[in-house]
Amino acid sequence: MSGREIENKVSHLLARMTLAEKLGQLQQLDGTWDGDVRPEQIKLAREGLLGSAIYVYDARRTTELQRVAMTESKLKIPILFAFDVVHGYRTIFPVPLGEAASWDPAVVEQADSIAASEASAAGIRWTFAPMVDIARDPRWGRIVEGSGEDPFLGAGMASAAVRGFQGTNYGSPGKIIACPKHWVAYGAAEGGRDYNTAEVSERTLREIYFPPFKAAIDAGAGSIMSAFNDLDGVPCTANSFLLTDVLRDEWHFHGIVISDWNAVNELIAHGVAANGKDAAAEALTAGVGMEMFSRLYNQYGEQLVAQGRIPVATIDRAVRRVLEAKYKLGLFEHPYADEALENAELLSPANLAAARELAARTFVLLKNDHDTLPLSRNLKSVAVIGPLADDTQSLLGPWSGDGHKEDAVTLLAGIHAKIPQAKIVYAKGCDVTGDSRTGFEEAIKAATESDFTILVVGESADMSGEAASRSSLDLPGQQLALIQAIHAIGKPYAVVLMNGRPLSIDWAATNSPAILETWFSGTEGGNAVADTLFGDTDPGGKLPVTFPRSVGQVPDYYNHKSTGRPPGVTKDYSGYSDILWTPLYPFGYGLSYTQFKLSNLQLSAARIHRDGTITVGVEVENTGDRAGDEVVQLYIHDLVASVTRPVEALKGFKRVSLQPGENRHVEFTLGPKELGFYNRAMRFVVEPGTFNVMVGDNSHDGLKSSFEVVP
Ligand code: GLC
C-alpha cells in the first residue's frame, strides 16, 4: 500500500472516530507479567479503546485479544502488540553490551533480525529496542542494555539494530517496528542511580547522547520512547525541546513517540504537574503521542480538549501516526499471528546455531599469560568452579524477552559437551552474593585434584538492568576470595567473567593467568564459551566501555577532555593521590589467541579544506600461527579549536578475520561529519587546524600521524 493510500485510509478512519475512540488509540495497557491477557483489556478491546498492548505475547494469546477487537468492536481497528525484545524473543542472544563488544554491526543486525522473526510469529509487531543510551557510569545498571560509552560505536550498533528489526520495511513478514530508547541522556543519571536527574549541556547532548538516536532514526526507526529522567530540569516526557524541536522540526521524525512505563503519571512526582490532568496536558503538549501503562490521556483527554487546553489537532496528529503504523504493518488485513509459524520459528536449529556463533564474537580476552588459553581437548580432568557456571537464568541476562532458562546451555554444560571424555568436577564455591565461604573447601579440593580449573565469577543477571544500580564495581560476595583461594593452590586456571557492567577486577588482572569477558551470552552461551575456551573460536571482541580500577574513578571514559592540567605534564595534574588515574582496561581493548601487527599508516593528503575528505589507510597482518579477528580502530584529536575537544574520538572501526600470515589493507574516510563539532554558537562546524590521527587495536596506543584542515 502506498504512502498516499495509507494517508487516505487514515483520514477516512479518523473522520469516523469519536474523541474517546481516538484517545483509546493512544493508550498502551499491560497484560500480566507472564504474557496473559487481562479482563480489562478484553473490555477495552470490545469498546474499541485499546490501541496497543504490552506484555501480552505468543500467537494464541495475542490472537485471543485481537479477535475481540476485530470482531466485536465498532471500527475493528487492530491492536498493536508490543514487547521488550531487546536481545532476542525466545532464542536469547548476548546482552547488547556484549553485542557491542563484537565491534561488528552484522552481529547486532543478524541477532535482531532473528529476534524479529520469532517475535512477529508470536504476534508481537513492536519492540522497545534498541536501547541506545550512552553510558559513562558503570554503576548504572542499564549500561548492560546499550552499546557502551562511545557515540560512534553506539550509532553503528543502533542503525544495525533498526535494520535487523525492521529491514527496509517493517510491514514485511518477520519484521517489527523498532523503538530506540530512552530519549534522552537517561544514562547520565547522577550517581549512576537509575531514574536520577541528568544535567547535560546541549553540546554534550548533541555530540555524545544524540548520535545513536539520530542513527536509529536515519535507519528508519518507526518509533521512539521518552526517558524517565529530568534533563536540565525538564522531564524528558514533558520536554518539547526534545520531543518537538529536535525530533520533529530538526530531524523530521514521523514515527510514534511513546512514553516510558507510567512516565506521564510520574510527571507529578517530578513536580512539574500538580495532578493527572496537568501531567496529561504536559506530555501531550510536549509531543508524547502514546501513553504506556498510565491512563491519563483517556481519563482527562476529553476534558482537556473541551477546556481548550489541548487542541483536537494534537490528538489527531498522534492518532494518525498510530494508525499509519498499523496500516504499514498490514495489521488491518492480517491482524492475527500464526501458531504454526510460531512453532517453526521459536528456538529453531538455525536460530540456536546463530546464537552460538554470534555469542562467540562478543567475548573479550582481557588477559592470557603464557598462552594459558585456548585449552587442549585432551585435558584429563577439569574443575569448573563458581556460582555462575551453572546458572541458566543469569546466562540470559536482563530483559530476556520470553527466554526460558530451561533452554539455556550453561557454561558447565557447554564444557561437558566439549570434552565428554574428561573428568569434570563442579563446585559452586560460594554464592554470587553473601558472606559464606562454606563451599570453598569443596572448590579447593576440586581444583587441587584437576589438571585445570575454569573459574566462573561475576554478577547475577538481576544485578544489572533496570533499577539495578550498584555503588561498587567489585566482584560481589566472596568471589574475589574464591579466586584468591584457587590461585593459592598454584595450579593453572582461567577466570571467566559473566557480568552486565565493567568490574574493577584489579586483583585478578594482576594475578590471574587468564581472564575471558563473556558478559551474559544468551541461550547458547555455554556452548559458545566452551568453543572459545577450547580454541574452536577466537576471542576477537574489544571493550565497548572503559574498565576502571576503582569505582572512585567514575565517570571514567576514554573520550575525555585534556583539562588545563593533563597528566604527565605538571606535578599537580588531574589525577588521584591514591591510585593511577588510568583505567584498568581501556575502551577498545581486547587480546586474541594470535597476534596482529599494524603498519604503513598512510594519509591521502597532508592538508584538506574544511569541507574536504581524507582517507586513512593501514595494513594489518596476522603474525601468529592461528586464525583470528582484529578490530582496527581509528581515533582523531582536534588539537586546537574554539571549544575544548576530546583527547581522542573514535571515527572508524573495522573487524577483520585473518588467517596466519594474511595481510589486509583497511581504509577509513574522514570528512566534515567526522571532523566537525558544535562551536560556541552551537553551530556544527569544521575548524582549521591540526588533527592527530591514531590507528590501533585499542584507544590507548597505535600508529600516529596528523593532517591539517585549512580554511
Ligand atoms: C521499563 C523500561 C523500558 C521498557 C518499558 C516496558 O520501565 O524503562 O525500557 O521498554 O518499561 O517494559
In the CATH hierarchy, the architecture of the largest domain is Alpha-Beta Barrel
Numbering strands along the chain, what is their spatial order in the largest sheet? 10-15-14-13-11-12
What is the number of independent domains? 4
How would you characterize the largest beta sheet?
6 strands, mixed
CATH topology of the largest domain: TIM Barrel
Uncertain segments of ≥5 residues (pLDDT<50)? Answer: none
By secondary-structure content and strand pairing, the structural class works out as: alpha/beta
Specify Rg, calculated over alpha carbons. Answer: 26 Å
- Strand fraction equals 15-25%
Mean pLDDT: 98
Give the number of helices: 23
Quickly name the level 1 CATH class of the largest domain: Alpha Beta
Number of strands: 25
* General form: globular
Q: What oligomeric state best describes the polypeptide chains here?
A: single chain
Heterogens? alpha-D-glucopyranose
CATH homologous superfamily annotation of the largest domain: Glycoside hydrolase, family 3, N-terminal domain
Q: Helical proportion?
A: 25-40%
How far apart the termini lie comes to 49 Å
Describe what you observe in this structure.
This protein has 711 residues and is an alpha/beta fold. The protein has 4 domains: 3-21 and 33-223 and 309-341, TIM Barrel, CATH 3.20.20.300; 226-308, no CATH class; 372-553, Rossmann fold (3-Layer(aba) Sandwich), CATH 3.40.50; 596-710, Immunoglobulin-like (Sandwich), CATH 2.60.40. The protein has 23 helices and 25 strands. The protein has a 6-stranded mixed β-sheet with strand order 10-15-14-13-11-12, with helices on both faces. Strands 4-3-2-1-9 form a 5-stranded parallel β-sheet. Strands 17-25-24-19-20 form a 5-stranded mixed β-sheet. α2 (19-25) crosses α14. The longest helix is centred in the middle third of the chain and has 18 residues, at 312-329. The mean pLDDT is 98. The protein binds alpha-D-glucopyranose. Residues 54, 84, 128, 181, 260-261, 466 line the site of alpha-D-glucopyranose.
